[in-house]
Specification:
The protein has about 625 residues and is an alpha+beta fold. The protein contains 15 helices and 27 strands.
Length: about 625
């Protein structure tokens, strides 16, 4: 049993520099563009032609990452910039211009103690990996490591704790290829054991890749994240809890991370895969997705555990949920993170996240107040939901389902809803990137058994998208349906309204008609469109008009476009579906009676269709006034 820890509160923030660097790398497949790499190098080491040393303040902790990112652009660097990188180590037998150590500041006993600790770390890591290093390790102690001048070290900081260098046969920094013949490690006194293990593990990374140019191409989430993980296997490093906190809080892509990717390796451990067995394949895989697959686990499964384990539900808060909401690996830092929400009739929990590849949204714990039916619509590549005291529900692509909260059960015709509970936990993630959505709401019984008829109306609406923009005035439509044994057995609705639009090819005006059916259950009937017809005239910029008609057939999954003088063209509808956003929610207002329901209508199929078609539609609500005969 892990000892109790703590949940990070809403005031807990990602380190600004960690988040900024990850944000840059998210859009560039995990690497920094050249100018950003030069700026990070200059900020860490105090010198780089063409680099802005003030760009990334407090970046000494990212010194190794700065070198790696600059090395990715080696062939693009000027000779002066390359010489600056070479000067990190200097020539054999000469003091480095960037890593100069004040003379006579280190005792022989300090150096011997550091060498003994390094030998201990080398033996321990070699035993776990099952390999021996094919080259020697050289240990040096360097004061003010990483600073061109001691005054560049920020107040209260000791500078860079350690640096590792792969050296070639000439004793210089191995850069563009070939074997590494010596691994040199610079440590800043007083030497921290965690730093030693971290740097020694980098030496083994050189050996596992076998080529210096391949090593420099390894993403930071593999090189630095695994080094933090390996260190945590042996010693308590003072930086590890802070690094793990960055993992817990981040919603960035795994591929954009560096040190904070430490948590990914704890996930592998929790799923029964030893990183010691797969790190060699990860280092030489050649790509982010390939490195994930190197574990031998299905990437969807791994991401699902990345999503859920951040809650630390057992070790931190004692939530009565299954083990998927925590890590089972040893030596996991104490922190966890999830948000809290209360859901009641008229007060849903809704969130939308734009996630990059292999990224997780924050886990949410929800308490339900009042109501008999809970509707849950979750969209993402992967996710999980679990009611307290019940088995977890794990899903891919989406989960759209209703749950009964009444002990006596809830029926919809011949079907009985599966039971939920007043408290639940959920999370979503994206394997390839995209929008992830959470919608949890209470649905009171809106319409009891009987025949219902009335109107639904919408306000004026402005629509914009890549194809152009348009405006349609408010519209009112008739609706009728019948509820028997809690289920909608029949029903129709229709909307018709004029519309105008403006596009790159011209302007147009016409009439839009939506015909649909009413389906589902009495607690929340669904408006499901069957056809959408646009009958318009387009005024082309060339100066002539074209009558045009387009019809979307949702049942067939097609769209047919017919223009004057041309045969109709039918093509697949693609991603435009009427069920892509979840539930229709009937928000019944005070003053309604059991036989006359008045209120607002949310998440209609019309809005779902527009959104899925790529149009930006402002928030709006239909109104309804429906009576039972």
């Amino acid at each position: 049993m892990l000892e109790p820890g703590r949940i990070l509160d809403l005031e807990s923030d990602l380190d600004p520099l960690t988040d900024e660097l990850a944000a840059i790398r998210e859009g560039t497949d995990g690497s920094l563009p050249m100018q950003d790499a030069l700026d990070l190098f200059a900020s860490a080491f105090g010198e780089m032609p063409g680099g802005n040393a003030a760009r990334f303040e407090g970046s000494t902790e990212f010194a190794e990452l700065a070198i790696r990112e600059v090395m990715r652009h080696w062939q693009e660097l000027t000779s002066e910039q390359q010489d600056t990188v070479r000067a990190l180590r200097g020539n054999p037998g000469q003091a480095s211009s960037l890593l100069a150590s004040p003379p006579d500041t280190t005792s022989d006993s300090e150096l011997e103690a550091a060498k003994a600790l390094a030998a201990e770390a080398q033996a321990a890591i070699a035993a776990r990996l099952g390999i021996e290093l094919p080259f020697p390790i050289e240990i040096s102690l360097v004061h003010h490591l990483g600073a061109l001048h001691p005054e560049l070290v920020p107040p209260g900081s000791t500078g860079i704790a350690g640096m590792t260098w792969p050296l070639d046969e000439d004793g210089e920094l191995a850069m563009t290829g070939g074997d590494v013949v010596r691994c040199a490690i610079d440590l800043q006194p007083p030497v921290n054991p965690g730093t030693v293990y971290h740097e020694i593990f980098h030496c083994f990374q050189y050996a596992l890749t076998g080529d210096a140019s391949l090593y420099w191409s390894i993403p930071g989430w593999i090189s630095e994240g695994s080094a933090v993980w390996a260190t945590n296997e042996f010693v308590d490093d003072y930086r590890t809890p802070w690094i793990f906190q960055q993992w817990i809080l981040s919603t960035r892509s795994l591929y954009s991370m560096s040190y904070e990717a430490f948590g990914y390796y704890l996930v592998l451990d929790s799923m029964g895969v030893s990183t010691w067995d797969v790190i060699g394949d990860m280092l030489t895989s050649g790509g982010n997705e390939a490195a994930v697959a190197a574990s031998g686990l299905e990437p969807m499964r791994v991401l699902s555990r990345v999503v859920t384990s951040k809650a630390r539900a057992r070790s931190v808060s004692g939530l009565p949920v299954s083990d998927i909401w925590d890590f089972s690996a040893a030596n996991v830092p104490r922190d966890g993170y999830f948000t809290d929400a209360t859901v009641s009739p008229g007060s849903p929990s809704q969130a939308r996240f734009g996630l990059r590849a292999f990224a997780a949204a924050p886990v949410e714990v929800i308490h339900v107040e009042r109501g008999s039916v809970l509707q849950v619509a979750l969209h993402g590549d992967v996710g999980a939901l679990e009611f307290f005291g019940q088995q977890p529900i794990e899903w891919n692509d989406s989960l759209v389902r209703s749950f009964c909260l009444d002990e006596g059960g809830c029926v919809c015709g011949a079907d009985e809803l599966e039971h939920g509970a007043q408290d639940l936990i959920l999370g979503v993630g994206q394997l390839h990137g995209g929008s992830a959505r959470v919608d949890v709401r209470v649905a009171d019984i809106a319409f009891t058994d009987g025949n219902w008829a009335g109107t639904i109306s919408s306000p004026d609406l402005t629509i914009s998208g890549a194809a152009g923009s348009g405006f349609r005035p408010g519209a009112e439509a008739a609706i009728n349906f019948t509820v028997e044994d809690g289920a909608v057995t029949s029903g129709t609705y229709g909307l018709q309204f004029p519309a105008i639009f403006d596009s790159p090819v011209g302007t147009g005006s016409g009439v839009v008609s939506i015909a649909g059916q009413v389906v589902g259950c009495g607690y929340a009937p669904e408006l499901e469109p069957t056809t959408l017809v646009i009958d318009a005239t387009v005024e082309l910029s060339a100066g002539f008009s074209i009558p045009m008609q387009a019809e979307i057939d949702f049942a067939a999954g097609t769209i047919t476009v017919e223009q004057a003088g041309a045969p109709p063209q039918t093509r697949p509808l693609g991603d435009i579906t009427s069920t892509s956003t979840g539930f229709t929610s009937w928000l019944i207002e005070t003053g309604s009676t059991p036989t006359n329901r008045v209120g607002q209508l949310e998440a209609t199929a019309e809005l779902a269709t527009m959104t899925a078609a790529g149009f930006a539609v402002g928030d709006f609500q239909f109104r309804f006034d429906i009576s039972r005969a």
